[in-house]
Design goal:
The chain is 3% helix and 47% strand. It has 396 residues and is mostly beta strands.
């Protein structure tokens, strides 16, 4: 059954949700609508479910200082003690060229959000933040953010960590100076607090690096998989050799998700087909497999998660030979090598043209109590625009 999280409450293109580790029926998330299409500030709303996603209600949002507006990219996480974290890009309501990353937290769904704190001061006149990724250590509760920062005429990936539930964050540190036009970072935490970050750049394609000291330093990024279609090589997000704060809008493509399951690291990404690249914890390559069956169908905007198995979901036109319609579609795997036949999570198809005209599109997958909750923007009711729907999936 598909459930609309917030039907008719504006066009929703970005979904970020998390489940409480000790109360898996409690789901909390944020729906965001980016204003980058028009150069204006966006908006977002926090939503909560106490019954595993069957019913949703809007919740309170952090109070922003006067003159400050939400920009885009909400990211939600819940620590093992129930503390909720929310990071997003903010900007001046009157000037959207220099968005910056802020974070807020609260002790639980009935508490108030803390005043959002800016993670780093502006670098130069036109410096900005973009494309954040959030991960929490399931054992220690330590939180990690990785994102793109515009520095002068280029961009770099930086990381920051919080050991006190998101109240304070370490100064952002560049992950590596060897990356070339990097973006689309994804972060995960493995055994013993090992932090893994993956992304794309013009030199390595799909790259990956790890930290064993709490994100203070990382290994030199190495190639996790080559890319046939690499938007970084076309100077994506750059104009006149300068960066633009529209990364997620302009740089669609691989959309990598890095996962750690046991002693293996997996990166799920899109490169005409949906692939998974598997590595060991030392980031030595093990194998690469295609997730979807062979065919010329459209595949776009993949997302992945891990619980007892690996899950990958994406928009797929396989079920329509004319490729005029797509369904949000999911597959699972116990080992990463072989995947179940794609299963339509969306009960109703959507128009792919609407997706590509309303970027960025950010679906989400949330593991909880033996299930995976899928969230995706859906254009089934065009009068209400893109609305986020959800359903729960079980391993077959």
């Amino acid at each position: 059954m598909n459930v609309a999280v917030a039907a008719g409450r504006g066009t929703q293109t970005e979904a970020s949700f998390a489940a409480d580790p000790t109360r898996p029926a409690l789901l909390v998330g944020a729906l965001g609508w980016s204003g980058t299409q028009t150069g204006s500030a966006g908006s977002f709303t926090v939503y909560e479910s106490a019954d595993g996603g069957a019913r949703w209600r809007p919740g309170a949002e952090p109070a922003l200082p006067a003159g400050t507006c939400f920009y885009e990219a909400p990211r939600v996480g819940i620590a093992r003690d129930g503390r909720e974290l929310l990071a997003f890009l903010a900007s001046s309501c009157n000037e959207t060229l220099t968005p910056y990353l802020v974070a807020s937290s609260r002790s639980g769904p009935d508490a108030s959000w803390s005043t959002p704190v800016r993670l780093a001061p502006r670098i130069g006149r036109w410096g900005f933040d973009d494309g954040p990724a959030l991960a929490l250590d399931a054992h220690s509760g330590r939180a990690y953010l990785a994102w793109t920062r515009a520095v002068g005429a280029g961009v770099e990936i930086v990381t920051s960590a919080s050991g006190d539930g998101g109240r304070t964050w370490s100064p952002p540190r560049p992950l590596s100076r060897t990356l070339v036009d990097p973006h689309l970072s994804s972060v995960a935490v493995g055994p013993h607090g090992v932090v893994i970050v993956a992304g794309i750049d013009a030199k390595r394609g799909l790259w990956i690096a790890r930290s064993v000291d709490g994100a203070r330093s990382f290994t030199t990024p190495r190639t996790a998989a080559p890319l046939r279609g690499n938007p970084s090589q076309g100077q994506c997000s750059l104009s006149i050799d300068g960066p633009l704060p529209y990364e997620l809008t302009r740089c669609i493509g691989p959309n990598p998700t890095v996962l750690v399951r046991g002693a293996r690291v997996f990166v799920v990404y899109d490169d005409a087909d949906v692939f998974v690249s598997a590595l060991d914890l030392d980031l030595r390559p093990l194998f690469r497999a295609r997730v979807n069956p062979p065919g010329k169908a459209l595949k776009a905007f993949p997302v992945a998660a891990a619980n007892g198995a690996l899950w990958a979901c994406w928009y797929d036109s396989t079920f329509d030979s004319s490729a005029h319609r797509v369904w949000f579609t999911c597959s699972s795997s116990r080992n990463g090598r072989s995947w179940t036949p794609p299963e339509r999570a969306a009960a109703v198809p959507t128009d792919p043209t609407a997706l590509f005209q309303t970027l960025p599109i950010l679906p989400a997958l949330v593991p909880a109590a033996g299930r995976v909750h899928a969230f995706w923007p859906d254009y089934r009711n065009y009068r209400r625009g893109l609305n986020v729907f959800t359903t729960a999936l079980r391993l077959r």
